[in-house]
Amino acid sequence: MTPRSSRTVRHSTFRVAPSLGTTRLTTGTSAGRWVILATVLGSGMALLDATVVNVALPSLGRAMHAGVGALQLVVTAYAVTLASLILLAGTLGDRLGRRRVFAAGVVWFAAASLLCALAPTVGVLVGARALQGIGGALLTPGSLSIIHASFTADHRARAVGAWTAFVGVAAAIGPLVGGYLVEAVSWRAIFLINLPIGGVVLSLALWRIPESRDDDAAAGPLDRGGAAMATLGLGGATYSMVYGPTDGLRPPVVVATLVAVVATVGFFSVERRAPNPMVPLAVFRVRQFTAANLVTFVVWTALGGVSFLLVVVLQTSLGYSPLEAGAASLPITAMMLIFSSWAGGIAERIGPRFPLTAGPLVIAAGIGLMIFIQPGVGYLEVVSPAVTVFGFGVALTAAPVTAVALGALDERHAGLASGVNNAVARMAGLLAVALLPPVVGLSGDAFQHPRTLAAGFHVAMLVTLGIAVTGAVLAFVTIPGDAVASQRLH
Question: Which one, out of 14, 32, 413, 419, has a CA that is 20 to 30 A from the CA of 264?
Fold first, then answer.
C-alpha cells in the first residue's frame, strides 16, 4: 500500500480512514480484511434481524397478546421498508459517500433496534420494525458498494465471495441465536444484541473503511422524482406480494398494486427526462449488468421458494423443533463459508460463465434430492445430502453473479449497481414466497397437515428445480466466458 492509504488522521476518539483516492485494497492485506469484516458485520446484522425474529414470534405473541395478523406485521413491516428504499439507499451512497451512508445506517438500525426492545405494545413494535427496515436498506447495498469501490479489479470477486460466505453464516445462525436468546433471556434480547454489534461496526467503519463517492453525481441535484417513484413502486410491489395471497383483492392490496404499476411506469418516464437521474436508463443497455440481474432474479426465485418451504416442511411434516429446523440448514452455511470465496476466484481466473452455469445446475440437483424429503425419513440419509448439494450450488452462484452485476458498471456507480441487484434479489424472494404455495395447492390450513404439506412441497420442488435449470441456461447464453469489463455510462 502507498503511504497515503496507510495514513490516518486523529478525530475525536477514532482514527478516521482517509478517502480512497487512487489506492485500492487487496484481499490478502490486513486493510482489506478489516473492510470485509466491517461490511460483513453491518450487513450481517441487518440480515440476522430479518431471520431471528421468526423464532421469537410465539413468545412475543404470548407476551403482547398479539394475534397472527399482528405478528405478520412485525415480520413484514421490516421487509416492506427495506425493499422500498434499498435502491434509493444505494444511490445515496454514490452521491454522499458510501462510508458515510453505511455509518448512518448502522446508527439508524441500532436506534430502531432499541425502540423495538423497549416497545410497550405490538403497534409500537411494528412501527419500530419499519424504522429498522430503513436502516437495513442503508446497510445492505452500502456493504457491497464499499467492497467494489475499495478493492482492486482482480480482487473484487474474491472479496465479494468472502462477504457472501460470512453473511451467509449470519443468516444461518439467526434461528440458533434467536432461539437461545428467547429461551435464556427474553424476546427483547434479540433486538438489544444489535446495540453492541452496532457499536463495533460503527467503530470499524470510521476507523478502517476508506471513503468513496461519485463526484459527478454529487455535483448535480438529487433526483427527487425518481427517488419517489422508485420508493413507491418497490413499496407497492412488496406490499401486494406480501399480503395479496392472504388478503385477496381487498382495497389495500388493490391500491398497493395500482401504486406499484403507476409508479414503475412513472419511474422510467421521470428517469428518461431527469438531468441527473437516480438510475440512468443506460445501465440497462449494459448487456452484462442486465444479464446478471436476470440470472439473479430467476435463481433467487428458486432459492426463495426452497428457503421458505423447507423450514416449514421440516417442522410440520418431519416433526423438527424450530431450533432443529434452523440447525438442519447448517450444511448450506458450511458450503458457502468454504466455497464462496473460491467460486469468486474461479470467476476471476476463467470468467463467470462456468460457475454461473454450473451453480444453478447444482442447485437444481440439490432440489431434486429434496423431493425425497417426507415424513419418517432420517436427517443423515436424506435431508443432509440434499441441503449440502444445494448449499454447494448456492456457493458457486452467489459471489460470481454479484461480482458480475457490480463489475459491469464503472466504480462510480457501485452503489447503484448494488442497490439494483439487491432489489432484484429481494423481489424474487418475495415473489416466490407469495406465489409458490398457492400455485402448488398449499393454501388455507394445508400448512397444518403433515402429508398434505409434504405432497405440496414435492410439487414445489419440481417447480423450483425447473426455475433453477432455467437460470443455468440463461447464464450460459448471456454471461461472458471471460472477465467482465466495467463500462462507464455517458
Answer: 413
Q: Are 367 and 306 in contact (CB under 8 A)?
A: yes
Pick from 305, 228, 237: which is nearest to 83 by CA?
A: 237
Least confident of 103-117, 177-191, 235-249: 235-249
Q: How far is CA 420 from CA 16, 106, 108, 290, 379, in A?
A: 29, 21, 22, 10, 38
Q: Which DSSP letter does residue 151 get? A: B
Provide the 8-state DSSP code for 374.
Answer: -
- Which DSSP string corresponds to 199-268? HHHHHHHHHHPPB---HHHHHSPP-HHHHHHHHHHHHHHHHHHHHHHHH-S-HHHHHHHHHHHHHHHHHH
Q: Which helix or strand (DSSP H or E) is residue 11 part of?
A: strand 9-11
- To 10 degrees, the CA torsion angle through 28, 32, 38, 43? -80
Whole-prediction pTM = 0.75
Q: Are 299 and 471 in contact (CB under 8 A)?
A: yes
Q: How many CB atoms lie within 10 A of CB 82?
A: 28
Burial degree of 285 (CB within 10 A; 0-12, 13-18, 19+): exposed
Give 109-120 as a 3 state SS string: HHHHHHHHHHCC
Contact 382, 369 (CB under 8 A): yes
The pLDDT score that the predictor gives to residue 277 is 80
- b/e map of 325-361 (b: 16 or more CB within 10 Å)? bbbbbbbbbbbbbebbbbbbbbbbeebbbbbbbbbbb
**What would you report as the CA-atom Rg of the chain, rounded to the nearest whole angstrom?**
22
Q: How many CB atoms lie within 10 A of CB 369?
A: 18
Report the distance separating Cα 371 and Cα 467, nearest Å.
15
Averaged pLDDT for residues 265-286: 84
Q: Specify whether the CB–CB gap between 474 and 356 falls below 8 A.
A: no
Nearest-5° angle of CA 3, CA 20, CA 290? Answer: 145
Interacting residues of 68 by C-beta distance below 8 A, sequence separation 6+: none
Please give the average per-residue pLDDT across 102-128, as a whole number. 94
Q: Are 98 and 416 in contact (CB under 8 A)?
A: no
The span from the CA of 362 to the CA of 394, in Å, is: 8
Q: Which of 223, 258, 243 is nearest to 92 (CA)?
A: 223
C-alpha dihedral (407, 409, 414, 420), degrees to nearest 10 = -100
DSSP per-residue string spanning 255-286: HHHHHHHHHHHHHHHHHHH-SS-SS-GGGGGS
